[in-house]
Amino acid sequence: MLGSSRWLVMSGILVAGLLASFAQANYPPPERLTGMNPCISKQTCHECIQTPHCAWCAAPKFPEKRCFLPNINTKIFATCPPDYTLNPDNLFSMLRHRNLTKGGYAAGGGGAGGGYDSIEGLHSNFSSSSSSSHFHKESSSSGGSRRQEAVQMWPQEVNLKLRINEAYRMSFAYSQAEDYPVDLYYLMDLSKSMEDDKKKLSDLGQLLVESMSKITSNFRLGFGSFVDKVVMPYVNTVPKSLIEPCDGCAAPYGYKNIMRLSQDTSKFAGLVRNASVSGNLDAPEGGFDAIMQAIVCRNQIGWREKARRLLVFSTDAGFHYAGDGKLGGIIKPNDGLCHLDTRGTYTHSSLQDYPSISQINLKVKHNAINIIWAVTEEQINVYKRLMKHVEGSFAGKLSDDSSNVVELIREQYDAISSSVEMKDTASSAVKVKYFSSCLGTGPAVETSKCDGLKVGTKVEFIAEIEVTSCPANRSEWKQKFDIYPVGINETLTVNLEMLCDCECERQGHMYEEKSPECNGVGTLKCGVCECYDGFFGKRCECSPHQELTGFDKHFQSCRPDNTSLVDCSGRGTCACGQCECEERDNPKEIISGHFCECDNFSCDRDQGKLCSDHGTCECGQCVCNAGWTGPSCNCRSSNDSCIAPGTTNGVLCSGHGDCVCGECICHEEGNTRYSGKHCNKCPTCPSRCEELKPCVQCQMYGTGNYSDPEECARNCKEFVPEGVETVIVDVDNDEVPCFGTDEDDCKYNFVYYYNETNCLQVRAQNERECPPQVYMLGIVLGVIAAVVLVGLALLLLWKLLTTIHDRREFARFEKERMMAKWDTGENPIYKQATSTFKNPTYAGK
Hints:
It is a single chain. The chain is about 20% helix and about 25% strand. By secondary structure, the protein is an alpha+beta fold. Helix 8 packs parallel to helix 10. About 35% of the residues are buried. Belongs to the integrin beta chain family. This is Integrin beta.
């Protein structure tokens, strides 16, 4: 019997184990339990409303799932009383929305000037409140004598209540006012090497005033100078050198505000002329100290509240920045505050370090100032790199004696005023995207910058605002941030309230402490019990110390249906009829749900990224952020990103590709291959070099088919080439190199490419490479001279040789004559009168 009972027990355990394994293996996955409903796993009201499109039912004793999708779960929506249904909407309203003005004045001092109309109204979208023009024209009754304050941003302040991960699109407009005030502060390096530049600036002072007066009648001008910190090793601290560091030089100093911004521009030239140069030792200058003081000392400099602020920084050297002060024993960081005395001298030059680039950028943004780096050719590349780190700044090449300073300032001002770029001060929890068609009539594309603007032109933008997460600090649920055009002291202020919790979770309606619904040991919030310490359960009916009864009933509440033999989906333990889900090793991976059927880590991935980093994993399914779709949120829901910026026809992928998941897949047509983000680049296509050469020639060198200026202006409107010393091809940017030879047999080269807005850009070398000119007269005269000289040389040589030969012959003759021995001679033709003949045969007789 014992053996038989033991066998039965073992068989029962084995059968139970097999059934449990079978049930666990066939347990429906989280997707089956939740379907396409991301709300089902949410257990509290604040979790529910932080999920897009979900609503919460706070009714007591509600039998259904409290968190639901109203447009899908219509039964729950109909069952829940309206007073207990919590589904907060995104609310938008305007607080200040003064109309745009085409002309105006600058508010001075420190106030806003003119005031704003305070009109409150609720607007669910922009179109319902913008059917008419936002421009406000001056009344004719003013007689032209009264001018309104310039308003260039519409609206000026709004309120927005926004749920998490639900993007809200808000429209706003910008227009550049006519005759807008300009404050120009000229900050000059007055080290010894800039002496000729100072003289030229004083000579051109009146021309600068006249040039800027053509832009605006409300123009103010100021002047300041800098050298460097009066500390070794920046300057020579020998007592004699501190008085006169170089011949005709003044004592060194850090920074001086010589002329406050003033409409009395006539004294500018005189003050510049009378300013003394000084000397320092090292090559970099203390310009950052001067920039910081010129920006933050608003009252001393005289910056107006409503004006375009230009700071022209002129130097022929580099700059010291944060950390360089340690070389002189200065370790105190720059505090970014104003330290000018009554004479306009920087008092803390030797007390604190130079500011950093990020500090300069921060102050530039806070004070809406455009810096123009007017530097010499040797420094232009350094300041062009610096330009990328200082918002709204531009770099231009200054001639050696600053003779082109007026032209440079005018060109840079035109470049600044003809474009607008929107930025914001939103925190990391808020994501803002910008869309606009700029001056076109096509669909709005994602861009924050528009070029080619003219005075009075209105540009409409759309700001897509999305709260990506609720900050841990409740005080940060209400935030204020500004949307502003770079370099303009006007803003659109957004008062944002994040809808991160429910009202019923705070004391008041639907909030009851020690509620009978919670057995007196919990607080009823939004229809759900929040149990006190030591109690748990749906109605706080459980305690870890109480004895449990009704074993089967107890575990049945931890199973989704009667067919399942697995408690809490096999990923938790059942305690007092409630599943306690397991905790993962990774604290960010959470198992949740009434039956532990959900988690936030089992969703589809793309390239190893959960939900492609474009959504959140909710109960095993990706809940995509606005603008994304697909099982792994890897596809854009809009085709806007496939339309090249600047186009008006709305053609996807420039007609050379297919838009797949918001990205262009470019075609390959035979030997023709398209590339680029919008398939608008074709390295293998015939280049436009021959087409562009005439315009490059006339615009850069005044030669070619369009050498006549009027003809050049008429035929070359597509681009204005940027002049560079050396043309370097950026292959990564798909730049196409071009080479040419003109009628003067001069060689030149340039590159062209298309920028992000599909606009043609050209860079060409400043100077052509021409062969040396042939001096024909010199050649002819040279040949003649050479022939004459060669002839003379030959004659001289002949004369020399003949002389030598004659002398040798004469010497030999003289020698022979001296050595001759003369005998008595007979006349060879004389014959004697007698002749004697001998007979050869006669012998001795």
